Amino acid sequence: MELKITATPSQHDLDEIRLGLKAYNDQFFDADVIKALGIFVVNEQGRKLAGLTGSTTGNWLRIDMLWVSEALRGEGVGSQLIKAAESEARSRGCRFSQVDTASFQARPFYEKQGYQLRFSLDNYLHHYQRHYLTKALIEEP
Known about the structure:
26% of the residues lie in helices and 38% in strands. By secondary structure, it is of the alpha+beta class. Pfam families: Acetyltransf_1.
């Protein structure tokens, strides 16, 4: 057995690990419940001006990335992306949403959208914080 360390894993390396993890996880749940999600704002030429990427797994929406170009910031585009993602997630049967963001990014924005801070990881990138937030997408009775 040999331990190899690399700063440049190949696509083959990543695929091998992903397949190994999938084989293990298949004992517990069907990986087909994980569905990618992408919502984009594009200009007339098809260039992306804003977007949200993530996935839905079971009853959870996971927001991975949300970006709005400087030209569109402050115009409610980010809120529209969140609402569209949450609506699509609900149609897929999701009841909850999760996101994480660095302290120099968008915590107040997500809180304005109804997300609640669950915990923060200190010393992220040396002196920042990483914030983890969640939101119920369906009101509990």
